[in-house]
Write a structure and sequence with these properties.
heterodimer; A: three-stranded antiparallel β-sheet; B: alpha/beta; Peroxisomal Thiolase, Chain A, domain 1; nine-stranded mixed β-sheet; two-stranded antiparallel sheet
Chain lengths: 75, 378
């Protein structure tokens, strides 16, 4: 639906810049915000695939946060 | 409705390291009281707009703190709605007067933001967004970047078109000594400024600022030159993922419709407006949501100069958020201060000649809350 490339990050994401984020519409019509990985060029309308990845490693209690990210869907 | 705006006060916005939050609030409040020729003893309640004092200063209970400084023992209320806190505080004050409970009240919008590290304030601002957005590593500007990208693609608008908004607001601020950045900038400077979150660059963004603004409001029985004739507020989803359309500010549309209805006027009756340009795209989307431009045409305002001083509908003669500054809780009140002064013919070099009806539009977060006020000097 839309995407952006973040150059100035929030704390905890400094080691990842620049990174891509996007708003993705899922099959059931609902939408989700997530990081976009393994992509060189993005365009609105591009098909994406959800993947399970580490969200960020800078966690005080030593817990690694996992979550959903998206990558371009190739046949 | 007819709520008298008896007096206004405003501090210089910017990096005010020598002033504490309560110093700024006091400065604006005393200036407003003096302008209104009202003593603190004549005020029956104080409404305070502020978003971040708890996180930034570890200070809440601002009502009591500001009351202490002003030596005021009446009721004080702190109102929060992210960046719409100031507009909301104004609205709550209006409602309190309409209820008949009070006859004269003070509104203060105040924020201290520049004493923090960038990452700290950035994190604090993301508290206006949703948890899913924070976990995905989004920043507040990136929410507007997502809207900007969708808007630019849908309506074939360029980064240069967006930059025109920043250039315009700086031009206006160059006439305003209390602005954070009272100087002009060029389109080239905007386009060459560092990328924050594509397509948003540094000069597409309003700054981090300290400042306070205040107004003294009174009920309809009080004679006055300028009055608030409409006040409306509406909401939209907090998260962008829950919105149907990324290119519309639904909360602004709803609040504006209500306000026009209350004042029995339409967009074409508005002579000037202060809109919420937290990012250049936000002004463009606001102009459309307020009915000043058709969908997809809001960018014409700055590019074709219709929204410049001297144009058909001057927008952000104060310099807007971009050039005047954006201490978040103060902005909504500052907008009322600017419109009131314009309608009282006290805007000096940035006076809109013959201004009769003005509008303010203040939003919170990525448009989750919107507050619109209409003022008139008829």
């Amino acid at each position: 639906m839309s995407f952006s490339v973040i150059h100035i990050p929030p704390s905890g994401f400094e080691d990842q810049i620049p990174y891509r984020v996007g708003l993705v519409e899922l099959k059931d019509g609902s939408r989700m915000m997530g990081q976009i990985v393994e992509s060189k060029k993005l365009r609105i309308g591009q098909k994406m695939k959800a993947v399970f990845r580490i969200l960020n490693l800078q966690e005080k209690e030593g817990v690694i946060h996992y979550g959903i990210k998206f990558k371009p869907w190739k046949k | 409705m007819k709520i008298a705006v008896l007096g206004t006060g405003i501090t210089k916005f910017g990096e005010r390291w020598e002033k504490s939050l309560v110093d700024l609030a006091e400065g604006a409040a005393l200036e407003a009281l003096d302008d209104a020729k009202v003593q603190v003893s004549g005020i029956e309640a104080i409404f305070i707009g502020n978003m971040l004092s708890g996180r930034v200063d570890n200070q809440v209970h601002l009502g009591s703190l500001i009351g202490e400084r002003l030596r005021f023992n009446g009721p004080t209320v702190r109102i929060e709605g992210a960046c719409a806190s100031g507009g909301m505080a104004t609205r709550e004050a209006v409602l309190s007067l309409l209820s008949g409970e009070y006859k004269k009240v003070l509104v203060v919008g105040v924020e201290k933001m520049t004493d923090c590290q960038n990452s700290q304030i950035s994190e604090a601002l993301m508290s206006a967004a949703g948890e899913e957005e924070r976990r995905a590593g989004l920043t507040f500007p990136s929410l507007f970047a997502l809207m900007a990208r969708a808007y630019m693609e849908k309506y074939k608008v360029s980064e240069k078109d967006l930059a025109a908004v920043a250039v315009k607001n700086h031009f206006h601020a160059s006439f305003n000594p209390k602005a954070q950045f009272p100087f002009e900038i060029t389109t080239k400077q905007v386009l060459k400024s560092p990328k924050i979150t594509e397509p948003i660059k540094l000069f597409d963004c309003s700054p981090i600022s300290d400042g306070a603004a205040a107004v003294v409001l009174a009920d309809k029985d009080t004679p006055c030159q300028v009055a608030i004739i409409a006040s409306a507020q509406a909401s939209d989803t907090l998260s962008l993922a829950r919105r149907r359309n990324l290119t519309k500010l639904l909360s602004v549309e709803k609040a504006a419709q209500k306000a026009y209805q209350m004042a029995d006027i339409g967009p074409k009756d508005i002579d000037l407006a202060e809109v919420h340009d937290c990012f250049t795209i936000a002004e463009i989307m606001a102009l459309e949501a307020l009915g000043f431009y058709k969908k997809g045409e809001g960018w014409r305002g700055a590019v074709e100069e219709g929204t410049y001083l001297g144009g058909k509908l001057p927008v952000n003669t104060s310099g807007g958020l971009k050039a005047f500054g954006h201490p978040v809780g103060a902005t909504g009140v500052k907008q009322v201060v600017e419109i009131a002064n314009q309608l009282k013919n006290k805007a000096g070099k940035r006076q809109v000649k013959g201004a009769r009806i003005g509008l303010t539009q203040n939003i919170g977060g990525a448009g989750g809350t919107a507050v619109v006020h209409i003022l008139s000097n008829d």
